Amino acid sequence: MSDKVFSFKDIHVTVEGKEVVKGVSLEIGRGEKHAIMGPNGSGKSSLVNALAGHPNYAITQGEAFINGENLMEMDATERAKAGLFLAFQYPLAIPGVTVSNFLRAAIKAKHGGEEAVLKDFRKELMEKFSSLEIDKSFATRYINDGFSGGEKKRIEILQMAMLKPLVALLDETDSGLDIDALRIVSNGINQYAPSDGGILLVTHYQRMLNYVKPDFVHVMMHGQLVRSGGPELALQLEAEGYEKIENEVFSNVGV
Which SS3 state, helix, strand or coil, does residue 167 take? Predict the structure, then answer.
Protein backbone atom coordinates (compact mmCIF):
# COMPACT_ATOMS: atom_id res chain seq x y z
CA MET A 1 0.00 0.00 0.00
CA SER A 2 1.43 3.34 -1.06
CA ASP A 3 1.93 6.03 1.56
CA LYS A 4 0.46 8.52 -0.95
CA VAL A 5 -3.30 8.27 -0.80
CA PHE A 6 -3.98 11.02 -3.36
CA SER A 7 -1.75 12.54 -5.98
CA PHE A 8 -2.06 14.58 -9.12
CA LYS A 9 0.54 15.79 -11.58
CA ASP A 10 0.59 18.58 -14.17
CA ILE A 11 -3.17 19.18 -13.95
CA HIS A 12 -4.57 21.72 -16.41
CA VAL A 13 -8.22 22.79 -16.15
CA THR A 14 -10.35 24.84 -18.51
CA VAL A 15 -13.70 26.50 -17.83
CA GLU A 16 -15.71 27.62 -20.86
CA GLY A 17 -12.59 27.38 -22.99
CA LYS A 18 -10.37 29.42 -20.66
CA GLU A 19 -7.46 27.74 -18.90
CA VAL A 20 -7.75 28.46 -15.16
CA VAL A 21 -5.41 25.81 -13.71
CA LYS A 22 -2.00 25.57 -15.32
CA GLY A 23 0.06 22.53 -14.45
CA VAL A 24 -0.57 21.87 -10.75
CA SER A 25 1.00 18.89 -8.97
CA LEU A 26 0.56 17.66 -5.40
CA GLU A 27 0.96 14.49 -3.31
CA ILE A 28 -1.02 13.81 -0.13
CA GLY A 29 0.18 11.14 2.27
CA ARG A 30 -2.04 9.05 4.51
CA GLY A 31 -3.25 11.01 7.51
CA GLU A 32 -2.09 14.34 6.09
CA LYS A 33 -3.99 17.60 5.92
CA HIS A 34 -3.02 20.01 3.13
CA ALA A 35 -4.33 23.55 2.70
CA ILE A 36 -4.37 25.53 -0.53
CA MET A 37 -4.58 29.27 0.00
CA GLY A 38 -4.71 32.05 -2.54
CA PRO A 39 -6.53 35.19 -3.61
CA ASN A 40 -9.93 35.07 -5.27
CA GLY A 41 -9.78 33.86 -8.86
CA SER A 42 -6.52 31.97 -8.43
CA GLY A 43 -7.99 28.62 -9.53
CA LYS A 44 -8.36 26.91 -6.14
CA SER A 45 -12.03 25.98 -6.45
CA SER A 46 -11.64 25.10 -10.13
CA LEU A 47 -8.91 22.61 -9.22
CA VAL A 48 -10.91 20.67 -6.62
CA ASN A 49 -14.12 20.75 -8.65
CA ALA A 50 -12.27 19.35 -11.66
CA LEU A 51 -10.66 16.61 -9.58
CA ALA A 52 -14.08 15.64 -8.22
CA GLY A 53 -15.42 15.33 -11.77
CA HIS A 54 -17.67 18.38 -11.99
CA PRO A 55 -18.83 18.57 -15.64
CA ASN A 56 -18.21 22.33 -15.92
CA TYR A 57 -14.48 21.90 -15.23
CA ALA A 58 -12.51 20.05 -17.90
CA ILE A 59 -9.14 18.48 -17.12
CA THR A 60 -7.26 18.86 -20.40
CA GLN A 61 -3.89 17.54 -19.27
CA GLY A 62 -2.31 15.68 -16.37
CA GLU A 63 -2.90 12.61 -14.26
CA ALA A 64 -4.42 11.89 -10.85
CA PHE A 65 -4.59 8.83 -8.61
CA ILE A 66 -6.59 7.95 -5.49
CA ASN A 67 -5.26 5.00 -3.51
CA GLY A 68 -3.39 3.87 -6.63
CA GLU A 69 -6.45 4.00 -8.91
CA ASN A 70 -6.46 6.20 -12.01
CA LEU A 71 -8.92 9.04 -11.37
CA MET A 72 -8.91 10.06 -15.03
CA GLU A 73 -10.65 6.82 -16.01
CA MET A 74 -13.59 7.48 -13.65
CA ASP A 75 -16.68 9.64 -13.91
CA ALA A 76 -17.85 11.70 -10.92
CA THR A 77 -19.90 8.86 -9.43
CA GLU A 78 -17.03 6.40 -9.73
CA ARG A 79 -14.67 8.88 -8.09
CA ALA A 80 -17.06 9.16 -5.15
CA LYS A 81 -17.27 5.37 -4.88
CA ALA A 82 -13.46 5.22 -4.91
CA GLY A 83 -13.47 7.43 -1.82
CA LEU A 84 -13.25 11.00 -3.11
CA PHE A 85 -15.54 13.54 -1.42
CA LEU A 86 -16.11 17.20 -2.29
CA ALA A 87 -17.67 19.66 0.16
CA PHE A 88 -19.04 22.48 -1.97
CA GLN A 89 -18.35 26.15 -1.42
CA TYR A 90 -22.01 26.86 -2.24
CA PRO A 91 -24.05 23.76 -1.30
CA LEU A 92 -27.21 23.37 -3.38
CA ALA A 93 -30.69 22.90 -1.97
CA ILE A 94 -32.58 19.76 -3.01
CA PRO A 95 -36.27 20.37 -2.32
CA GLY A 96 -38.21 17.14 -1.80
CA VAL A 97 -35.22 15.11 -0.58
CA THR A 98 -34.71 14.92 3.19
CA VAL A 99 -31.28 14.95 4.78
CA SER A 100 -31.84 11.44 6.13
CA ASN A 101 -33.00 9.97 2.82
CA PHE A 102 -30.19 11.69 0.91
CA LEU A 103 -27.53 10.23 3.20
CA ARG A 104 -29.16 6.80 3.25
CA ALA A 105 -29.17 6.71 -0.58
CA ALA A 106 -25.59 8.02 -0.83
CA ILE A 107 -24.22 5.44 1.60
CA LYS A 108 -26.09 2.61 -0.12
CA ALA A 109 -24.86 3.73 -3.55
CA LYS A 110 -21.27 3.94 -2.36
CA HIS A 111 -21.43 0.32 -1.22
CA GLY A 112 -23.01 -1.08 -4.36
CA GLY A 113 -26.57 -1.15 -3.08
CA GLU A 114 -25.88 -3.34 -0.04
CA GLU A 115 -28.61 -2.97 2.60
CA ALA A 116 -26.34 -4.30 5.36
CA VAL A 117 -24.34 -1.06 5.49
CA LEU A 118 -27.49 0.74 6.70
CA LYS A 119 -28.00 -1.50 9.77
CA ASP A 120 -26.99 1.16 12.30
CA PHE A 121 -27.73 4.14 10.06
CA ARG A 122 -30.25 5.91 12.31
CA LYS A 123 -28.16 5.53 15.45
CA GLU A 124 -25.00 6.76 13.74
CA LEU A 125 -26.83 9.68 12.12
CA MET A 126 -28.16 10.88 15.48
CA GLU A 127 -24.68 10.60 17.01
CA LYS A 128 -23.22 12.73 14.22
CA PHE A 129 -26.05 15.27 14.57
CA SER A 130 -25.18 15.63 18.24
CA SER A 131 -21.44 16.06 17.72
CA LEU A 132 -21.99 18.65 14.97
CA GLU A 133 -24.63 20.45 17.05
CA ILE A 134 -27.32 19.93 14.41
CA ASP A 135 -30.90 19.80 15.65
CA LYS A 136 -32.38 16.33 15.12
CA SER A 137 -35.34 17.86 13.27
CA PHE A 138 -32.99 18.46 10.33
CA ALA A 139 -33.13 14.73 9.53
CA THR A 140 -36.59 15.20 8.02
CA ARG A 141 -35.98 18.60 6.45
CA TYR A 142 -35.25 18.93 2.74
CA ILE A 143 -31.51 19.15 2.22
CA ASN A 144 -30.20 22.74 2.40
CA ASP A 145 -33.71 24.10 1.71
CA GLY A 146 -33.93 27.31 3.74
CA PHE A 147 -30.78 26.46 5.70
CA SER A 148 -28.46 29.22 6.88
CA GLY A 149 -24.90 29.35 5.58
CA GLY A 150 -23.59 27.76 8.76
CA GLU A 151 -26.23 25.02 8.68
CA LYS A 152 -25.35 24.17 5.07
CA LYS A 153 -21.66 23.82 5.94
CA ARG A 154 -22.47 21.59 8.91
CA ILE A 155 -24.53 19.36 6.64
CA GLU A 156 -21.53 19.11 4.28
CA ILE A 157 -19.34 17.89 7.16
CA LEU A 158 -22.16 15.57 8.25
CA GLN A 159 -21.99 14.01 4.78
CA MET A 160 -18.24 13.55 5.16
CA ALA A 161 -18.73 11.97 8.58
CA MET A 162 -21.37 9.53 7.34
CA LEU A 163 -19.79 8.64 3.99
CA LYS A 164 -16.30 8.13 5.48
CA PRO A 165 -14.35 9.05 2.34
CA LEU A 166 -10.71 8.25 1.76
CA VAL A 167 -9.93 11.79 0.57
CA ALA A 168 -11.96 14.91 1.39
CA LEU A 169 -11.74 18.02 -0.77
CA LEU A 170 -13.13 20.92 1.27
CA ASP A 171 -13.82 23.96 -0.89
CA GLU A 172 -13.84 27.12 1.25
CA THR A 173 -15.85 25.40 3.96
CA ASP A 174 -15.12 28.39 6.20
CA SER A 175 -16.74 30.99 3.92
CA GLY A 176 -19.70 32.79 5.44
CA LEU A 177 -19.29 31.26 8.90
CA ASP A 178 -19.48 33.21 12.14
CA ILE A 179 -17.04 32.30 14.90
CA ASP A 180 -19.34 29.74 16.57
CA ALA A 181 -20.18 27.97 13.30
CA LEU A 182 -16.49 28.01 12.34
CA ARG A 183 -15.61 26.28 15.62
CA ILE A 184 -18.30 23.61 15.20
CA VAL A 185 -17.44 22.89 11.55
CA SER A 186 -13.70 22.81 12.28
CA ASN A 187 -14.20 20.43 15.21
CA GLY A 188 -16.21 18.20 12.89
CA ILE A 189 -13.45 18.18 10.29
CA ASN A 190 -10.88 17.27 12.94
CA GLN A 191 -13.09 14.56 14.42
CA TYR A 192 -14.12 12.92 11.17
CA ALA A 193 -11.03 13.45 9.02
CA PRO A 194 -10.05 10.20 7.26
CA SER A 195 -7.40 8.66 9.54
CA ASP A 196 -5.95 6.54 6.73
CA GLY A 197 -6.74 9.07 4.03
CA GLY A 198 -6.18 12.76 3.49
CA ILE A 199 -7.73 16.20 3.41
CA LEU A 200 -7.22 19.00 0.89
CA LEU A 201 -8.67 22.18 2.34
CA VAL A 202 -9.17 25.22 0.12
CA THR A 203 -9.39 28.53 1.95
CA HIS A 204 -8.86 32.22 1.38
CA TYR A 205 -8.16 33.08 5.01
CA GLN A 206 -5.92 31.74 7.72
CA ARG A 207 -8.59 31.74 10.45
CA MET A 208 -9.84 28.19 9.83
CA LEU A 209 -6.29 26.93 10.06
CA ASN A 210 -6.27 28.05 13.69
CA TYR A 211 -8.67 25.15 14.28
CA VAL A 212 -7.82 22.66 11.53
CA LYS A 213 -4.04 22.38 11.70
CA PRO A 214 -2.55 21.60 8.28
CA ASP A 215 0.63 19.61 7.80
CA PHE A 216 1.38 21.53 4.61
CA VAL A 217 0.24 24.86 3.18
CA HIS A 218 0.39 25.71 -0.53
CA VAL A 219 -0.13 29.08 -2.20
CA MET A 220 -1.98 29.23 -5.51
CA MET A 221 -1.87 32.22 -7.83
CA HIS A 222 -2.84 32.63 -11.48
CA GLY A 223 -3.63 28.92 -11.76
CA GLN A 224 -0.29 27.74 -10.39
CA LEU A 225 1.05 26.51 -7.05
CA VAL A 226 3.80 29.03 -6.41
CA ARG A 227 4.92 28.22 -2.87
CA SER A 228 4.66 25.41 -0.32
CA GLY A 229 5.58 25.17 3.33
CA GLY A 230 4.36 24.30 6.79
CA PRO A 231 1.67 25.97 8.91
CA GLU A 232 3.92 28.99 9.35
CA LEU A 233 3.32 29.90 5.70
CA ALA A 234 -0.35 30.58 6.49
CA LEU A 235 0.66 32.89 9.32
CA GLN A 236 3.02 34.71 6.97
CA LEU A 237 0.19 35.21 4.48
CA GLU A 238 -2.07 36.52 7.22
CA ALA A 239 0.57 39.03 8.27
CA GLU A 240 1.88 40.09 4.86
CA GLY A 241 -0.93 39.29 2.41
CA TYR A 242 -0.55 37.73 -1.02
CA GLU A 243 0.95 40.71 -2.82
CA LYS A 244 4.48 40.18 -1.56
CA ILE A 245 4.64 36.59 -2.83
CA GLU A 246 2.96 37.58 -6.09
CA ASN A 247 5.58 40.25 -6.70
CA GLU A 248 8.41 37.83 -5.90
CA VAL A 249 7.09 35.11 -8.20
CA PHE A 250 5.63 37.06 -11.10
CA SER A 251 7.66 40.28 -11.17
CA ASN A 252 9.44 39.25 -14.37
CA VAL A 253 6.80 36.93 -15.79
CA GLY A 254 3.71 37.81 -17.80
CA VAL A 255 0.59 36.10 -16.43
Answer: strand
